[in-house]
Amino acid sequence: MSSVSITEERKQNYLLTAPYIANKLCLVTLNDNGITSPDDLSGKKVVTQTETTADLYMRELQENGGLELADYGIYDQIIFCFEELRNGRADAVMVDSVVAAYYIGIDADRFSVVWESEEAEPMGICLKLGNDELLAKIEAAIDEIYADGTYAELAAKHFGEGNTVAVR
Hints:
Helix content: 25-40%
Largest sheet: 5 strands, mixed
Order of helices and strands: EHEEEEHEHEHEEEHH
Strand order of the largest sheet: 6-5-7-4-8
Radius of gyration: 17 Å
Structural class: alpha+beta
Shape: globular
Number of strands: 10
Mean pLDDT: 92
Oligomer: single chain
Strand content: 15-25%
Low-confidence stretches: none
């Protein structure tokens, strides 16, 4: 359920709920390292989690945007990306805003979000094809906690403000 961006490819291969949160891509660095946007990444080492929209974005910047990195590291788990950053073996992490919020929350004295994408990407809950009954139950539960304000309260507490606006 964690951080599944709704893409056309995923819609063809999985059942996805309607969006429950609006996510953006973020560039996270150690505080005050001089990087302020993807434009500053030339010659730097950037890390991200494999097969995520952040990975797709970084590959697009390199393949079609002319970005030449010193190194591009991809990891199976995002925690390893933040360890690379924390230990000075990477200059930046490209990651979902909801994930960045978590790591900033536990290490705000070291990490900063220095850039955020303009366009939000919707996130949903992903299920195997054929689980239509479970999908309907999950949709009903999400609708209920949206309607009574519980979801907005939880999202603001854990991810910051504004990430549920106009999502459902």
